[in-house]
Design brief:
It is globular and about 50 Å long. The protein is an alpha/beta fold. About 40% of the residues lie in helices and about 15% in strands. The longest helix has 23 residues, at about 165-185. Strands 3-2-1-4-5-6-7-8 form an 8-stranded mixed beta sheet, with helices on both faces.
Length: about 290
């Protein structure tokens, strides 16, 4: 018997380890085509080889890209665009703990900022047209509550002064949340939407490197990401704290701050952000928990 899949196509970045790997395994049975990204060719090919026999009705497409390289991200975007003609879900899960010592990519950006923030924005921008072709496209940006401890250093986003890996990590996650808020506002009258999810503490390599201690099994975190992928939205929030839909109570969540972040981001990426052409609609604010 042929099982009707829930979606046509989905992309999961950072799918070769931790939360991303478990999310890929869960999504594989729900989509016709699953695109899985990893930094290393061997690891992403091994993942595809593990997924394919378990889900014979799903086409698994491995994608190799080092997110520290804009050129490799461009190549991955082009591969996705030639592989599918629409995209229902993009899960921007790939990330890195704050890197020590401070590292600058070949593109001139502090590496934590590029991997955790600039890369997912670039991926979303490059695949935006495919998302708009889906009946209901959704961008899910995986973040962390450590953003609450951060401020954006507008004149020093690459943290040339007073660098600390935890500062770099928290700032990158704050940028993700601010970006997602603006993206959700822009998409509120469209067939697409955007959410953030804080999946909670999970015992992954990234968590141990960032925080230095073991945490809970990834199972609960994966459930929370899957919930953010599938849950209906009521127009009152964009941020899932585990499974609770909230709007973070941060003073920086103001339209002029988001517009400034968009301008800075477009400049760093040297690209247009296609959602900026849409009418800006403010989402109602709810109280954060």
């Amino acid at each position: 018997m042929t099982v009707r899949k829930r979606w046509s196509a989905a992309l999961v970045t950072g799918a070769t380890d931790g939360i991303g790997r478990a999310v890929a395994h869960r999504l594989a049975g729900m989509v016709d085509t699953l695109l899985v990204h990893g930094r290393g060719a061997r690891s992403v090919m091994d993942l595809a080889a593990a997924l394919a026999p378990a889900h014979p009705g799903t086409t698994i497409i491995p994608l190799k890209a080092d997110l520290c390289s804009m050129a490799e991200i461009h190549y991955m975007i082009n591969r996705v665009c030639t592989a599918v003609d629409q995209l229902d879900i993009v899960v921007n899960n790939a990330g890195t703990a704050g890197i020590y010592p401070r590292t600058v990519t070949r593109d001139g950006n502090e590496a934590t900022l590029q991997v955790n923030y600039l890369a997912p924005v670039m991926i979303t921008a490059g695949l935006f047209d495919l998302l708009c072709l889906a009946e209901h496209g959704r961008v899910v940006n995986v973040t962390c509550d450590s953003y609450r401890n951060a401020k954006l250093r507008w004149h020093d986003l690459s943290l040339e002064q007073r660098y600390h890996p935890m500062t770099a990590y928290a700032q990158s996650k704050l940028a993700v949340v601010l970006h997602t808020q603006g993206l959700a506002d822009r998409l509120s009258a469209s067939s697409c939407d955007a959410v953030c999810v804080n999946p909670g503490n999970a015992d992954t390599k990234l968590h141990r490197r960032a925080f230095g201690w073991h945490a809970e099994s990834v199972t609960g975190a994966v459930d929370n990401v899957l919930y953010a992928i599938t849950a209906p939205l009521d127009g009152t929030g964009f941020y899932f704290n585990r499974k609770e839909l909230t709007t973070p109570a941060v003073e920086l969540f103001r339209p002029h701050v988001q517009r400034h972040l968009d301008r800075v981001t477009a400049g760093l990426l040297s690209t247009r952000l296609p959602w900026l052409e849409r009418v800006h609609v403010h989402l109602p604010r709810s109280t954060a928990s």
